Amino acid sequence: MAQSKSHMLPMIAISKELEKLNHSVTFAVASRMKTDLINDGFNISTIIAKSLDQFYFEDIIREMVETMMSGARIRALTEWLKGTNALCHGYLNDTVHVQELAAHHFDYAIVDYAPTLCFSIMAYKLNLPFISLGAFIDPSVNRVPLNPSFMPTLFSSFTDRMTCRERIINTVRYLILLLLPSVPSFENLSERYVPEKQSVSNEKIKQMSLMYIADNDMLLECPHSVPSNVIMCGGLAAAPPIQLPDKLNDFVENSSDGIVVVSFGSIIKTLPSETLSKMLEAFNMVTNLNFVVATGKEVKYV
After folding, report:
1. Which end of the chain has less Cβ packing within 10 Å, N or C?
2. How many angstroms separate the CA atoms of 30 and 19, rounded?
3. What is the radius of gyration, based on Cα positions, of the chain?
């Protein structure tokens, strides 16, 4: 899995269900992620991959978000591609980790569908049938259906009811996706990292997945067709509520008109200080509402 809580928590939920059926589950993780999960109270079996510490996905995402919020969107995307490319090749070049995985003789692999192909390539190298898990299903790979007239591309913000102009833009985005089935690397990864087996295109590697578990829900998006081997299973990372801290509980109790909770998602774990300052400045201009802003480990009351 990519080393980010938003990627790990859904898989942990799945692992708990598998354990109820007497299956054992082992995670390949960075030592940093293992420490974070232990501190959060999770007890999971792990294999440490030093390469995942060297190219830590949360660091890659944080740097991309900070660059994007500074207004340099193209540079942010370039940095993300460089980071995920280094992550992918670093992981597949981790020979000690490959040998340790092979020694365990696993029956199946559940691999992260995004952001890189390296986890699927690793399963192919180890002769493991694999299942893909992710927050989206790429229709350009599944071909079910490839119809840009009503199926929005990832991160496009379009709906199934696009205008003519939006459909043209969406079609162009689809064509780009068709040219980039191997992100973050254009080369044939099986030729480089699995020379002992028949060469298979990056696209075909993705299509080898037995099943796709999509951690999203059409009720929160728009209706779209999916292949028969896709399970729409939103809310995998949901957990029972915990007791609010006293100060925050008082804030909620004293909000006579209710509260509004806004989340930017776990992808923005820590906002750049300049962006946070601008937000707080804007909130301070509103006199009839109170705000609680949480960023990283810090909570600010405005």
Report:
1. C
2. 22
3. 21
The distance of Cα 282 from the centroid of its chain, to the nearest Å, equals 30
Closest CA to 13 of 249, 269, 238: 238
Residues 6+ apart with CB under 8 A from 219: 234
Model pTM?
0.80
